[in-house]
Write a structure and sequence with these properties.
Blueprint (H helix, E strand, L loop, with lengths): L2 E12 L24 H4 L10 H13 L3 E2 L6 E4 L9 E4 L6 E9 L5 E13 L3 E3 L8 E3 L6 E7 L6 H17 L12 E11 L9 E6 L2 H20 L7 E6 L4 E7 L9 E2 L10 H10 L4 H12 L3 H8 L2 H13 L4 H18 L11 H12 L5 H14 L3 H8 L7 H14 L1 H8 L6 H11 L6 H11 L2
Parallel strand pairs: 11-12
Antiparallel strand pairs: 1-9, 1-10, 2-5, 3-4, 3-14, 5-6, 6-9, 7-8, 10-11, 12-13
Helix pairs in contact: 2-5, 3-4, 6-7, 7-9, 8-9, 8-10, 10-11, 13-15, 13-16, 15-16
This protein binds adenosine-5'-diphosphate and magnesium ion.
Adenosine-5'-diphosphate binds next to strand 1, strand 9 and strand 10.
């Protein structure tokens, strides 16, 4: 039996404003518990919320970036429920008229093609506080610092059909909000997290299957795993004659499974109604025009430009444009390395990214600056060192804060440029290996690599590979 998978994501994106969406309390992460929640965030009697203009601007900016409609006159509603981390008894959100609607986003699929995913809406709302279960024996701690932090909840159409597509979509949104500078993107701190709605149906079926919603996934890996687990589980349920229950589930990373949190029957009736303390949001057309003008070049546009301007493959361009900082670093390398774009791309997404990952560093913390990496690339381009030696030089630059020329000089790594010297070594290798010479001359082309390898060994990698090849070809006849 063939199955079709349907996925829709709800992504909670914290906006990086200094203060809360309806109060002047700070939003900074990591403060002492309950030091950053004021009377407004707690909803104490008599307080009045005041809308944070910057949160509105940042939400609108997101809408512009995904070709959405920005609604003039969006409305804040109260979503009523009780939870210990929501002492107000309601969350202020937007239901009927969200600030952003009808957007779209293009994602790249594994086979190289692209797909457009619809963005149903993105509404402004306030985050709740946090319940802390660790460190409190037999009790739950409540930290209300997060209460009132501005969020946009970005809701997709149910248009993704695999866990991989869902992750590609989420990564793209993650990249865009960081390009826009509206969210710090820190998933460990919960600034960017997602609920995954998943259903399955038999191929050819036109009605959507019953969905489950797995809550609060805060890493790309968890999203992929939770979705794949749900797909398997739902197919199993149906194939063994059961029915999928519409419910909210929780993902457990420890045993990589999801479990029921609450079923539809227990679902809350939120008794939404417009918040009487807040007016509909009027947008100044001048502000919108200004935001539109201030939009940076976004990942897709940058990727296309990297392909056309630097001749990069779509894969390289995609990787380098995924983060704005990475893209900027790459372009600095190219400009300092006389347009050695291909090599710059290889080094930034290869050696440099590898070293950053290994040391858990962000690119703006790289001990090797773009300018120095460009110098290293220039030394390969002008044949001072080989690509292989360059990797050794890079390690030294990384660990010891040196320029490539310093390392090359100190370690005497310049390529052998004296043809006579190199020729003598080539002659020696040929003379010492008559058997291999015979094999090569009788048609075993593969043996050629053996000679190259031996010359490289004797020169400790300092021979110019192209020159070695040329000399060997000339002499092995
Ligand atoms: P709610 O707000 O009650 O969770 P919505 O209708 O707003 O419900 O849907 C939330 C998310 O669920 C959206 O991203 C939507 O695309 C997705 N979704 C809706 N129906 C399905 C379905 N049958 N299968 C998978 N995803 C779905
Ligand atoms: Mg939902």
């Amino acid at each position: 039996m063939e199955w079709e998978v349907v996925i829709g994501l709800e992504i909670h994106t914290q906006l990086n404003t200094k203060t809360k969406i309806f109060s002047a309390a700070a939003t900074a992460y990591g403060a002492e518990p309950n030091t950053q929640a004021c009377a407004v965030d707690l909803g104490l009697p008599g307080v009045l919320p005041v809308l944070n203009k910057e949160a509105v601007a940042k939400a609108a900016m997101f809408g512009l970036a995904v070709d959405a409609t920005i609604n003039d006159g969006s409305v804040f509603d109260r979503k009523n429920y009780f939870y210990p981390d929501l002492p107000k008894g309601y969350q202020i959100s937007q239901l009927a008229i969200p600030i952003v609607e009808h957007g779209k986003l293009e994602i790249a699929l594994e086979d190289g093609s692209t797909k457009v995913v619809g963005i149903t809406r993105a509404h402004l709302e306030e985050d709740a506080g946090k319940s802390l279960h660790e460190d409190f024996d037999g009790m739950t701690g409540i930290d209300l610092n997060r209460a009132g932090t501005p969020l946009i909840e970005i809701v997709s159409e149910p248009e993704m059909s695999s866990a991989k597509e869902a992750v590609a979509y989420m990564k793209k949104i993650h990249s865009i909000v960081q390009y826009l500078g509206i969210c710090d993107g820190n998933m460990q701190e919960g600034s960017f997290r997602c609920d995954a709605n998943v259903s399955v149906r038999r191929k050819g079926e036109t009605e959507l299957g019953t969905r489950t919603e797995t809550k609060n996934l805060n890493s790309f890996r968890f999203v992929e795993r939770a979705i794949n687990y749900e797909i398997e589980r739902q197919i199993d349920v149906i194939e063994s004659g059961g029915r999928v229950a519409q419910e909210t589930r929780l993902y457990d990373a420890d045993d990589d499974s999801t479990r029921t949190m609450r079923s539809k029957e227990e679902a809350n009736d939120y008794r939404y109604f417009p918040d009487p303390d807040l007016l509909p949001v009027k947008l100044d057309p001048e502000l919108l025009a200004q935001l539109q003008k201030s939009l940076p070049e976004l990942p897709d546009a940058k990727e296309k430009r990297f392909c056309s301007e630097y001749g990069l493959s779509a894969e390289d361009a995609g990787q380098l444009s995924a983060s704005r900082e990475m893209a900027d670093y790459f372009e600095q390398v190219v400009s300092h390395a006389n347009g050695q774009a291909k090599m710059a791309a290889n080094w930034v997404s290869g050696e440099l990214s590898g070293a950053l990952n290994l040391n858990s560093l962000e690119i703006d913390q790289s001990p090797v600056s773009a300018e120095r990496l460009a110098q290293l690339i220039s030394r390969i381009a002008d044949n001072t060192i080989s690509g292989k030696i360059a990797k050794e030089v890079f390690q030294d630059m990384w660990s010891n804060d040196k320029t490539p020329d310093q390392v090359i000089e100190e370690k005497g790594l310049q390529q052998i440029s004296d043809v006579g010297e190199l020729e003598a070594i080539v002659d020696k290798v040929i003379a010492e290996n008559p058997k291999q010479v015979e094999q090569y001359l009788s048609g075993k082309d593969k043996v050629f690599g053996f000679f190259v390898g031996n010359v490289m060994k004797l020169t400790k990698g300092k021979a110019n590979p192209a020159q070695v090849n040329e000399l060997l070809k000339k002499k092995l006849v």
